[in-house]
UniProtKB/TrEMBL annotation, chains A, B:
Identification of the protein by name: TetR family transcriptional regulator
Family annotation (PANTHER family): HTH-TYPE TRANSCRIPTIONAL REGULATOR RUTR
Keyword DNA-binding carried by entry: yes
SUPFAM superfamilies with a match to the protein in the record: Homeodomain-like (SSF46689), Tetracyclin repressor-like, C-terminal domain (SSF48498)
Keyword set includes Flavoprotein: no
Domain HTH tetR-type: residue ranges: 11-71
DNA-binding region(s), chain positions: 34-53
One family name in Pfam for this protein: TetR_N
Length: 203, 203
DNA sequence: TCCGTTCCTGACCGGATGGTCAAACCTTTG
DNA sequence: CAAAGGTTTGACCATCCGGTCAGGAACGGA
C-alpha cells in the first residue's frame, strides 16, 4: 500500500508516525483521533505528518493494510498435516501471544469491525472469508476422521478469536476485575485456554 | 440517573432521543457520533435534542447508566443454590440472548471499554468487580465440592463474556464469514456454546 | 376563548480540526 | 562550497461541531 521510503529520514519518520498513529487510533478510534494528538505523540509537527502521508485517512489505511498480514498469519500457519489438537492449541497460543504483544493492533482491528469495518469490508469479504473457509474444511476433515470432537468449525474459530482478543480489547476490564495482585493475566489465560480447548476437542 | 419525565411528550421524546443516540453512538463511538446525526435519526432538530438533554455527554451518560443494569442482571441471577452446570449454562444462554436482542447496547459497552472506559471506570472498579468477586467465590465453592471442573473462576467468566459478546460486537465479521446462507448465527452459536461449556465443566 | 407553560427552531457563535502553502532550513552531492 | 533537492514549520483557511438564544408554535387548564 504505502510506497517504499527512499531516504533514511523518510523511513524513520514514516515509522515514527505510524507508531504514534497506532497509539492514538487504537485508543480513540478513527474519528476520535486528531492529527494534533498523533503529531504530539510522534514528536513532529502536524504539517510534517502531512508531508509524509497525504491525509489522516491515508495514515489509518496504511496501518490497517499492514495489520491484516500479522493478523491472519497464525491461522494460515495451521498445518493440515499436523496433529489436530496440537495445531489448534498452537493456533490459540499464537493468537493469545498476538493479543499480549500487539494489543494496540488488536484494538485498532476491533474498533474497525465494531464500526462495521467501513475501510476493511473488501478484505474481510474476500481474504478472511476464504481463509476461514479453507481452514474450516480442514477442521471438518479432522472431525470426520474422528481425531477431534464434532463441532461447528466456524464457530470454533470464532470462539478462539473471541477469547484471545478479549484480553487485548477489554484489557481495561480484565485488569480491573482481576485486581492489581495479578498484573499479567496472560500466563493464567494461556493455561485456561489450553485446558478449555483440550476438553472441548477431546473425542 | 436521568430525571423522571413529567409530560407525555417529554417521555416520548426523551425515549426517541436515547434510541437514536444508541444507534449512532454504538456505531460510531462517542467522538465519532455527532448531534446532527442523532438529531436526524431521531427526527428532531439539534436544538430540540439539547432542550431535553443538557449536552452530548449527558445523552451518552444516560445511555451508559441505564445499560449497566441490563448488563449485570444475568450474572446477578446466577443462583448459588441451583445446580452448577444448569446455572452456568443458563447464564451463557442469557448473555447470548442479550447479544442477540441488544447488539447496539453491547457495542456501546464495547466501544466504552475499548477506549479505556473513561466514563465507566468507577462502576467497573466497584460494582462489576465486586459482583465478579462474589460470583467467583460461588464458582470456586462448586469446584471444591467437585460439582464442576477446577478452573480459574474469573477466566471462566471472561470466556463467557468474550464468546457471547463476540456475536454482537463483531456482528459484521461473523455475518460475512458465515455468509448469507446462515443469516441468523444465534441458534447455531447457542448449540455450540452449550456444548463447549458442558464439556469444559464436566468433572 | 384566553393565558401561562411547554415545546420547538432558525440563526448564530467560538473553538476544534483536517488540510494548505510559502518560505526557511537542512542534507547530499557534484 | 554552492546548487539542488529533500525536510520542516508558522501562519492560515474552510469546515464541522457542540452549544446558545430569542422568539415563535403548540398545548392544556380554566
Amino acid at each position: 500500500m504505502s510506497p517504499p521510503r527512499r531516504t533514511r529520514i523518510q523511513r524513520r519518520n514514516s515509522e515514527t508516525i505510524l507508531d504514534a498513529a497506532l497509539e492514538v487510533f487504537s485508543a480513540q478510534g478513527f474519528r476520535g483521533a486528531t492529527l494534533d494528538q498523533i503529531a504530539e505523540v510522534a514528536g513532529l509537527s502536524k504539517p510534517n505528518l502531512l508531508y509524509y502521508f497525504p491525509s489522516k485517512e491515508a495514515i489509518h489505511l496504511a496501518l490497517l493494510s499492514r495489520l491484516l498480514e500479522t493478523w491472519l498469519d497464525p491461522l494460515k500457519a495451521m498445518n493440515p498435516d499436523g496433529d489436530p489438537v496440537t495445531e489448534i492449541l498452537l493456533y490459540v497460543r499464537r493468537k493469545l501471544e498476538l493479543s499480549r504483544d500487539f494489543p494496540r493492533e488488536s484494538r485498532l482491528f476491533a474498533n474497525e469491525i465494531l464500526q462495521g469495518a467501513p475501510r476493511m469490508r473488501r478484505v474481510i469479504e474476500t481474504e478472511l472469508k476464504d481463509l476461514v473457509a479453507e481452514k474450516a474444511r480442514i477442521l471438518t476433515r479432522w472431525m470426520e476422521e474422528g481425531r477431534i470432537a464434532r463441532l461447528h468449525p466456524v464457530h470454533l474459530i470464532f470462539s478462539i478469536w473471541a477469547m484471545t482478543q478479549h484480553y487485548a480489547d477489554f484489557e481495561m476490564q480484565v485488569g480491573t476485575v482481576l485486581g492489581p495482585d495479578e498484573p499479567d493475566p496472560y500466563p493464567e489465560a494461556g493455561l485456561y485456554l489450553d485446558t478449555l480447548f483440550r476438553r472441548l476437542l477431546a473425542v
